[in-house]
Design goal:
The chain has 455 residues and is α/β, with parallel strands linked by helices. It is built from 16 helices and 15 strands. It has a seven-stranded mixed sheet with strand order 2-10-9-8-7-3-4, with helices on both faces. Its main location: cytoplasm. Homodimer.
């Protein structure tokens, strides 16, 4: 009868309105086996997803997520328009999988001088879909089950889940703050590694250490002495260094960015990671790269060719032209890299003044376009809940978004679970913003302080 009527079993039960039978049918067709891969366990939450959604829900001034709301420099935009609007039709097609020839060539020339190495563009440079893919390739290619990876806290939040997805074990060591000089604001330079504590994290299972200088979220620029300490331990224990240097051109107050791969014994064991998004304020282009010895990069190429395989050709061409301009102007006042640091230092100082006037205690960064601020003084306005599983900084920012219209990111997101509560009185602001955005934030902070003081 069922066959003659042309009805499926499900349609038959639905026609008969036999709910019990239809429920039985649906339950039998649902998958019951676990589909999630074990490597995804515990890495599903992401601070950016949560707070970007919240910022979009309310009218806000967004100093949270680290993207510029100002345009890239004109020469960068012109290079991109030329790439997509010019006569070279091949710029709309696939290019070399491991990096557009024009881009890997200029990157090898540019960074070869800075690293003191003769870089082969075909073997010592790999172009990736942003620094994010560069990091992913590092962990997938070089970290195995049972390997330990040292991560310096605070750390960019993707390091920990990427280690875990590769089967490795993250091992944490903290930058510890020292008291600022009397009458002065704390600086990111006041946060330092304890040499003995760092040395204790290196074991026979240590495969790699992740170094981020200048550091996000703190803005710390590691000194030469700190770099040499890390380098000596890497050499002693035969450990690889993943050096995340995406903010290399954003350094203030005469500080020097030290490339750890340039130190003795480190070129052969370091993968240096860079980003055109951070370098040229083009985060949406998603062009990144890795630099390093072929003995390491060949394994990253294997991951890249079996996952992403290829990066957008036109964007790579535009970045290549932008780097050529910077190579011609390197060290000169016309250099965009020089002008960028000068412009952002002024924006940093502006935001520092605004936060101080608003009653917060900023930690002045030596680099990056982020700064952390202490909001302990606001606990009378936004009380802490000791029995809450949610860190205080996360709840504070949600309250601030809804009630004040100002967005930041909780610093506890940049710490491992055991250490989150120790730093949840800190929040992170981004200041690579238009003057109008910073002025709007200043107005919010001033009004907030007036309300708080009853003036």
């Amino acid at each position: 009868m069922l066959r003659r009527s042309g009805l499926s079993l499900g349609q038959y039960f639905l026609r008969r309105k036999n709910r019990a039978g239809f429920s039985w049918y649906l339950n039998k067709t649902k998958m019951s086996r676990l589909v999630q891969a074990r490597r995804l366990e515990g890495v599903d939450k992401n601070v950016w997803v949560e707070f970007v959604k919240l910022a979009a829900t309310y009218p806000t001034v967004n100093l949270g997520q680290g993207f510029p709301d100002l345009p890239p420099p004109d020469f960068v935009k012109e290079a991109f328009m030329k790439a997509v609007g010019g006569e070279n039709i091949m710029l709309h097609q696939y290019t070399r999988a491991f990096g557009h020839p024009a881009l890997v060539t200029i990157l090898a020339r540019f960074f070869g001088k800075l690293l003191g190495q003769e870089l082969d563009p075909l073997t010592n440079v790999l172009v990736t879909v942003g620094a994010y893919e560069a990091l992913f390739c590092c962990f997938q290619a070089l970290v195995d089950e049972g390997d330990e990876v040292i991560i310096i806290e605070p750390f960019f939040d993707c390091y920990q889940p990427m280690v875990k997805m590769a089967g490795g074990t993250p091992v944490f060591v903290q930058l510890r703050p020292k008291a600022a000089e009397a009458g002065k604001l704390m600086s990111s330079g006041d946060w330092q590694l304890d040499p003995a504590e760092l040395a204790s994290r290196f074991t026979e299972r240590t495969k790699a250490i992740v170094l981020n200088s200048p550091n996000n979220p703190l803005g710390k620029v590691f000194t030469r002495e700190e770099m040499e300490l890390i380098a000596d331990l890497c050499v002693k224990h035969d450990v690889v260094c993943f050096s995340d240097e995406v903010y290399e051109w954003v350094v203030y107050d005469g500080k020097e960015h030290i490339r750890i791969a340039s130190l003795p014994g480190m070129w052969d064991r370091t993968i240096t990671i860079g980003s055109a998004g951070k370098t040229f304020s083009t985060t949406g282009w998603k062009v990144g790269w890795t630099l390093g010895p072929d003995r390491l990069l060949k394994h990253l190429r294997t991951v890249h060719q079996n996952s992403v395989y290829h990066c957008p050709t036109a964007a790579q061409e535009a970045v290549a032209q932008a780097f050529q301009r910077e190579l011609d102007n390197y060290g000169k006042q016309d250099s965009y890299f020089v002008q960028l640091a000068q412009e952002l230092q002024q924006k940093r100082d502006w935001l520092v003044r605004s936060l101080v006037a608003g009653g917060m205690k900023p930690i002045v960064p030596e680099g990056t376009y982020f700064l952390m601020a202490d909001v302990s003084e606001f606990k009378s306005e936004v009380p802490d809940l000791l029995d809450s599983d949610e860190p205080y900084d996360s709840r504070f920012i949600k309250w601030m978004i809804i009630n004040k219209g100002l967005v930041a990111i909780p610093v506890s997101a940049f710490y491992s679970t055991p250490h989150k509560r120790n730093f949840d009185h800190l929040i992170r602001f981004c200041f690579v913003k238009e003057e109008a955005t910073l002025k709007a934030a200043e107005d919010i902070l001033q009004q907030w302080n007036l309300e708080k003081t009853g003036q």
